[in-house]
Design a protein that fits this description.
This protein is α+β, with helices and mostly antiparallel strands and 138 residues long. The protein has one domain. 46% of the residues lie in helices and 18% in strands. It has a two-stranded antiparallel sheet. Strands 3-4 form a two-stranded antiparallel ribbon. The two termini are 26 Å apart.
Length: 138
């Protein structure tokens, strides 16, 4: 693997983790939302990754990552009995989003650490390339 290909691989991972962090932020922002006028509440979104070959031609030794899809969690939302709420249904229940804030915080920490690790990989590769150039000057 070329030193320059490290930037491609880590860059693809940084981009994918950035999209994951955006999905987590959206989920956390809508964790306590109730069903809208159409009767459906916000559904948690999950990012699905896929391997992306980075090599040219038949070179399959380098693989990065890309976001293949962003799916919506189809589990039913949390229902709370509150007949006084303006969004309550005929039975007096209010349907909230199906976002689990604890699970989303874990996803956020995981995505953030993955992002930071890939930035560190790129920084180390840059330092090694600079050292190699300095060795060639002497």
């Amino acid at each position: 693997m070329s030193m320059f290909q490290i930037f491609n691989v880590s860059g693809s991972a940084v981009s994918a983790q950035s999209q994951r962090l955006n999905a987590v932020a959206s989920n956390l922002a809508n964790a306590d939302t109730v069903a809208g006028p159409d009767g459906t509440a916000y559904k948690a979104r999950q990012v699905v990754f896929q391997t992306q070959l980075m090599g040219a031609g038949n070179d399959t030794t380098n693989a990065g990552v890309k976001v293949s899809t962003i799916t919506e969690d189809q589990t039913p939302g949390r229902r709370v009995h509150n007949p006084a709420h303006p969004q309550a249904d005929a039975e007096g229940y209010v349907t909230y989003s199906n976002v689990n804030p604890v699970e989303e915080m874990v996803n956020m920490i995981s995505a953030s650490r993955s992002y930071q690790n890939n930035i560190e990989v790129m920084s180390t590769a840059k330092s090694l390339l600079l050292k190699t150039l300095q060795m060639g000057q002497s």
